[in-house]
């Protein structure tokens, strides 16, 4: 009687696994490599948003292209909020920039909007 072999499906090729020596793992190199990769992903995401005009929040609050203009906007808004009744407790956000607030006077709100329009002009953005 001859032996027969049954085969079901295909067999995965064995692969060599690398075992990481955690006590000697180079965390600084890992941090550097991943920081570069994540920064590249982030910048590509920002560029895509910039080109598609989809997310104003990201462009105004986070986009690295507008860092200097955003700093000027933040500084101006911070100065305005320092004189507001409860302004020190407000965080820099699109709501703060676009919505009327109970915590600031109409004049302060108008100054915040003027600072926002300067930011829009300085960054060549459109409404």
Tell me what the structure shows.
The protein is mainly α. It has one domain. It is 56% helix and 0% strand. The termini are far apart. 9% of the residues are buried. The model has no long low-confidence stretch (mean pLDDT 76).
Cα-based radius of gyration, to the nearest Å: 27 Å
The structural domain count equals 1
> Which structural class do you get from the secondary structure elements?
mainly alpha
Largest sheet: none
Q: How many E strands?
A: 0
Low-confidence stretches: none
Alpha carbon gap, first and last residue: 85 Å
Topology overview:
Layout lengths: L26 H26 L3 H7 L4 H16 L11 H5 L7 H17 L5
Concise synopsis of the structure shown:
The protein has 127 residues and is mainly alpha-helical. It contains 5 helices and no strands. 56% of the residues lie in helices and 0% in strands.
Short key terms for the protein model shown above:
single chain; mainly alpha; 5 helices; 127 residues
